[in-house]
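Suppose a colleague, Dr. K., hands you the sequence of a protein chain of 357 amino acids and asks what its three-dimensional shape might be. Before reaching for any lab equipment, you can write down a predicted structure in token form. Begin with the sequence itself:
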Amino acid sequence: MLEIKIEKNRQPKEKPTDETRLGFGKLFTDHMFLMDYAEGQGWHDPRILPYGPLAMDPATTVFHYAQEVFEGMKAYRTAEGEIQLFRPECNGQRMVDTCDRMCIPAIPVEDYVQAVAALVDLERDWVPHADGASLYIRPFIIGTDVGLGVHASKSYKFIIICSPSGAYYAEGINPVRIYVEDEYIRAAPGLTGFCKCGGNYAASIKAGALAEEKGFAQVLWLDGVEQRYIEEVGAMNMMFVYEDQRIVTPALNGSILPGITRDSVLKLGKQMGYGTEEAHMEIHDVIADIKAGKITEAFGTGTAAVVSPVNKICFKGEEIGIGNGSIGKITQKLYDTLTGIQFGKIDDPMGWIVKVK
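The predicted structure, expressed as tokens, is then:
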């Protein structure tokens, strides 16, 4: 167990009074968690300090060779005022897996969860009260060696910051149009597609910007070898609902992020009586199934939105509608149940909630 030192901020910020205008990732809380790593010493000096800038040499490894990893998760306030986390150990394990690929010393899952809970406990007054709003949590690790040689850093910082964020669907859940990207690729076998690292997201920005210029909300990514098989949508996992009430998602293949919301939807869907399947999904087959009415719903899954319904897919210049154009019944039920568990509105049959005490 970590022995976390706490230095409280003597000049706390004024908390927002209008939680309907929080937005996402713009405002940060009073404190941050830090822990250092040095070769031969390991992870040490866990502490919570006032939120503030980091002093770093211009030649620091992370700036040049992108040796870093991050996570994204939330803390939720229940109607009774309790603060809770959703499957934090899964975020901790995914960071362990990402660290292994990025040649970064991993933080034990129990230490990760303790650090997150300690910071959230201190910042519990920052967890929004408004319906659908939450405290977004961003843990990350950066390489901190100074020098321009291409090698794994021997020193690192583990940092956690928090940002109160507004309801993702403040004006209701509106399905979106997406564009199948058949020129750029997001990831390829053997690379870092399954990792939560910044380079993956930087590589996706160009295609996303071009899709946005064309009026689409997101890019539907295909595989990096044949560009035939569906992988992700934007920075989310992709799911399709078939007429026989099967929920089907692209199988993890090393270039698809193992999303925690993805896993939760599959487990929850099965518990709710739906069929669930992970499969290699060829884009032409999917388009044919949509046209034939075999696919009745489609949606992305991720921490921020939970689910993001899709009502149109543009492929090779042709725009194909899905279902009746509104959010599907199964998508809506999954969203209501999952967010109900996260905010404590309904019982947690899966044992996923961790109370912050």
